[in-house]
Amino acid sequence: MTRTGARPPAPAILDRALDAFSRWIDTVAGVVAAVLAGLRPLRAVRIGESAAGMFSLAGPDGGATGFPLAGPPDAPSPEVAARVKGRAVELALDPARFLSRPLELPAGAAPFLDGIVRAQIDRLTPWTAGEAVYGWTPPVMMPDERLRLTVLAAPRARVEPPLHCLRTMGAGSVAVTVAAVGGAGPVLLRGLDPAMAGVSGLARVRRALLAVLAAAAVLATLALAASEIAGGGLDAERDDIDARIAAHRRALTAGGAAQGAGGAALRALEQRKRESQPTVLVLEALSRVLPDDTHVTAWQMDGDRVQVAGISREAPALVRLMEQSRAFTQATFVAPTTRQPGEAGERFEIEARIAVPPEGAR
Q: Could you tell me the superkingdom of the organism this chain comes from (predicted)?
């Protein structure tokens, strides 16, 4: 007993995927081939099949020449081969070869007739879609909002011999048609082997597409392999760098422990460097505090103390200005202010303590 909704076996899924891929390739190849055919149209000839299995090709004088199309042993005359070579051939087959079946579908199925008819072939005929060539008449809309059409099908083995013969003669393309019952016009057959029909170079285009896809797959595989190789090399290089860094860290740690007192002295110097005030920053703080009419002639730093000497028009106000700043405290004169003849201000000498880092003072 088969369970409802059971998952199909893996081979069936693979067959469906390959079949869908083949149909997609045929569709793309058909579009490309149609574009190429529009750019370089071929002169067309029509070969019709009579009820006796013979084929006819209208001659230049309007008459028809009968000949078989059953393979190289029964090849037609050189004149027929010369007229077919390089041409677009319409091969009109005898309707007696085909099985005719009516089919009704909902009106909304019109855009999907190709897939629907292909799926219905094994129900309408004794053959599967892979074993048959088939076509259908133009759908007719019925009053009940349904489409009615006629499906024509025949085994592929009956159609391939004349196709093979035409291809041997060098036909540029072959379109196989059959006259529908009731005068609905010729029906173009589907399901032909592209290598046999070669419709507008379809076989060559299909091979080219497959070659392009295969080349793309090979290039993608090579790129992936190169990426894996390059990634492995980078990982090894990164591990080597990490190992070197770890070795240097261990060496530095061991060297610091071996230095003993020398390492302590080095740390003391670094501490003193951090605690001392940079000279440039102290000068910048003085330039912000002292007014523009003050000229510094000498200055000296000793630890956190600074001494400044110079000339200013308002020397007594300098101590107050330095005290008001956040950069200096405990400002005081270390010598009395004096005025020399001919000078524009008083000479001063002030000492102050550097209170905070000068970059923090405003």
A: Bacteria
